[in-house]
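Bug #77: duplicate submission created two jobs. Keeping one. Sequence:
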Amino acid sequence: MKHYDVIVIGMGLAGLMAAKTAAEGGKSVLLLGKGVGRAHMHTGCIDLLGYYPSGSSVSVENPFESIGRLIEERPNHPYARVGIPDIRKALASFLGLFDGQDYTYFSQGKKNTITLTPAGCTRTTYLVPSTMAWGGIEDKRDVLIVGFDGLKDFYSAYIAHNLNSLGKGGRFPFKARPISLPLSAFSARKTASPPVLARFFEEKGVRDRIAEAVRAELRGEERVAFPAVLGVERPGEVRRELEEKLGTTVFEIPTLPPSVPGYRLFQAFKRDLQRKGVTVIMGFAVTEALIRDGTCSGVTVTCPPLQRAYSAEMFILATGSFFGGGLEEKGERAVEPIFGLPVHQPASRDAWFGDRFFSDDPHPIAHVGIMADERLNPIGQEGRAVVRNLHVAGSILSGADPLREKSGGGIVLSTGYKAGRGDFH
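Kept job's structure:
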């Protein structure tokens, strides 16, 4: 049985951040994941806190001010377990992944940033990929929205229509105009997913043909928006080259999954972990934890018909909530399948949801998860640590409503950071 200082279970952002932080602390780290997390679902943007209280219709301008209030009012929220100083350190650590690269992340200082969605609406977030810098809602320059005939779920005409509708309401001072280019101009394919189209953009000949076609369509627009497919490995370089050829500002609008910016994010973490000597095993499920007297000694990884065990001094569970498989539904109850941890949840499944789907109050299922103490050790109803050398991070934690709060990115990064930097003794 191979032994490590730390074993991290889960390949999402929380697990990746935990492994990064533990490795930076000089620990030998094994990262286990049955897949690649939710990277393909991720827009690439990092939400910190968009709305507070979570049912508010007015977005938060300064997320750190609102997080301070949230911590006072909701002591069981994951942010309260981490604290503002470690939230800031986690974000700084995340930004360090992109030091010296032409693809990085930016923010508006202490303020949230307004970015665009695949539907032509706006959303509040905190950290945004540099390729999505579009000038904001006060920029008066008109925008040309570029789509592709065979790219599913990205409709430039729909996006332009919605942006112009918001403009008529006095919200935007610019106009948007759509075009759609045929894939046949540079490919034999009739359809393409975002990752496939992103690979096309990495070919200089293809970029030249696309730039030529777009330049012929310009009617004075000073900004050109593409779907978020400007390459996988060198998006900053691709964007810069297109700007030179078009003589305009070029930016990306997120697409529906599979997401290229999410894949870029996963790859940035993966490269960093490889440099730090982290052992990464993907594609195998952790099926059992070896626990005795409140301490975990190892886990079993299964790839039928084979099994293999690994041991460690400390373990970090970052397997996500229901969507990631970190929680499972078993009859009337939600269960945590690896360590058998107690799950904070309503008394019966009938109480998981409210009477109305669109309600001002969150559905109780949003708060289902693992309760943790200040060290992110999982605790039971009596408040005592269930497994002393286990820390829990990410969306499996209870006490938050990430979808309504727009806090998911900040929660997974900050709890992953704290878990990875935790008390190893």
